[in-house]
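Appendix B. Chain record.
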Amino acid sequence: IYPRGGVTAVLDIGITHSIMIAISYGGEYVIEERKPDWYPDMEFAVRLRLLHETYLLPALAIGYDGQGNGPYDDSLKRYAYKSKGFYGVISKNYLMMEEIPFGLHGGINYSLEDKDKDDDISIFVGCDMKFTQSFGAVVEYDLATNDDKSENLYGKGYGYLNAGVQWFFSDNLLMEFDIKNILNNKKDVYSLDREFRLVYFEAF
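Structure tokens predicted for this chain:
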């Protein structure tokens, strides 16, 4: 759930321990009095884990994700926050003070949302920490080098810094409140984006 009454719904399906596929759809003004402004297309994603994490080596995954975040701009054929597109990512988990799970992640991506003539490759990093069985936190930073052209209405060259707090309500339910664009990397926007995520897990 994102600003202007926007909602994006995503269904992830793990085909195996190494392959995941997903479909997603949403729009603006869904939680509003106005008529919803739906995204023009349903998006999809696929992820393949090439290497599983070991004691010494990180996990390695590649994939494609066409779902961006926030409102969709019909004129530029892009989301407010561009989708990752094709990407590769590495991930390694640790234990801090022998009891606090701590994960480090980094990746590189090429988004197909390039109608704004900004088609550079971008780099992103992130970390997550679970303080207790019920509460955790996440932080991520995207250099957004594919969203920093001066003529765009979006990125100003600072990159996107986001952070969130997580509540693991049960083994199957996660609730997360996120603050996005902490560096105010959008033109004509002077406040932080606030989003709420509700994630339900189930095994079949």
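Further analysis of this model is presented in Appendix C.
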